[in-house]
Amino acid sequence: MAPLLRKELLEAWRDRRALIMAVCFSLMFPVLLAGGTIFMVKKQSEEVTKVALLGAERAPLISERLQSPDLEVASLDSGVPRELLAGDYDVVVEFTEDFARRYQDFRAPQLYLYVNSSESSSGRAQRDIQERLGAMQQLVVTQRLAARGVAPQLLAPWRVETRDVSTPSSRGALILATVPGLLIMTLFIACLATAVDTSAGERERLSLEPLLLQPMPGWQVITAKTVAVASLGWLGSLLAIAALILLMPLMPLAELGIQRATTVGGVVAMGLIMLPLALLVAVMQILLALRSQSFKDAQTQLSIFQIAPLVMLMMLDIAQVKLADHWQLLPLVGHQQWLKGLLIGDAVPPFWMLSGSLVTLALVVAAVLVGARALRRESLLSAS
Q1: Apex CA 9: angle with CA 298 and CA 190, to 5°?
Q2: In a 10 Å sphere around its CB, with 0-12 CB exposed, 13-18 middle and 19+ buried, how is residue 84 labelled?
Q3: What is the pLDDT of residues 18-73, one digit of tens each?
Q4: How many Cβ atoms are within 10 Å of 142's Cβ, its own excluded?
Q5: C-alpha span between 25 and 8 (Å, rounded)
Q6: What sign results for the dihedral spanned by CA atoms 39, 40, 44, 45?
Q7: Residue 74 phi, psi dihedral angles, 5° rounding
Q8: What is the pTM of this model?
Q9: CA angle, residues 224, 230, 231, in degrees to nearest 5
Q10: Please, what are the domains in the chain?
Q11: Helices 333-344 and 350-374 sit at what angle, rounded to 10 degrees?
């Protein structure tokens, strides 16, 4: 088996196209994730809500209280709200002509808040203005009650105070929720080209038949090919993990309220738990490619094969399903939970990681035996 394993590894690592694909995607998504995070924080910190006030002279107190570093307020003599919103302004506040008179008569004057809900910034701008106007309205009510000798507590029988009990780890889970799925996707993509080439590709090149004529069991052939394919996939996942950890200091996680909690032991654990999964993905891709009718058919089938589990993982994240501990025995699902916990610094039970990895390895052994039986079929070489 040693010469066969050496031959498969040399062929896999000499394939520049597969090697470049594995390396490029492994480095691409951490860079995109870091760049997207930096851009998002920079955009939020630099964004200033632009407010246009129509008839501001009728409510000088409101105009004065709206001034703040987060709001760029402009008092205009005239203008059409729709045209102002189509221009540079996010919100338009219009005071009616009788605003001052009705305010002095305690008759609740009307003001209009114009927004364009089709703009992405309008929701944030509307919340900012409504919060400030609500605070000023409460202040005026309190002053009017105090002036008439009425205790403001009569209108507020209780006080609501919100306290955030989230931890840096839980906040980090929201931002880094997609990272485990991308790491697993990296493994799939890094294995794809080599898995197709070493199975359907060898069959079309007529180099698989001489290999099967050699006096060796079929499980050794499948095992050698699996190790060669998994080596590239594992390399891709290790590169992605290393790039992500190296780029984390450049990401403004502190500004998002996230504390870096990944330790050296956590990084090593992430690399180790990806190895059994790399073997499972490699052997499954090889089996599917052997069942395909041609090289192109194998590429199509494996492309669909790598999308299906990622969609499942995304659905679990979006639905925020609380899974029981025994779900960690299931490949992909368990790996997603472990990677997420190791990234944000949550405690990941070693028992479940070890048990889930053993289950994954057991599935690898079963798949190898299935592949060995498939190699005995004469129809395997005639597929075209």
Answers
A1: 50
A2: buried
A3: 888 888 888 887 888 778 777 776 666 667 788 889 988 888 888 888 888 778 88
A4: 14
A5: 23
A6: negative
A7: -125, 125
A8: 0.70
A9: 90
A10: 2-38+169-382 (no CATH), 48-163 (3.40.190.10)
A11: 140
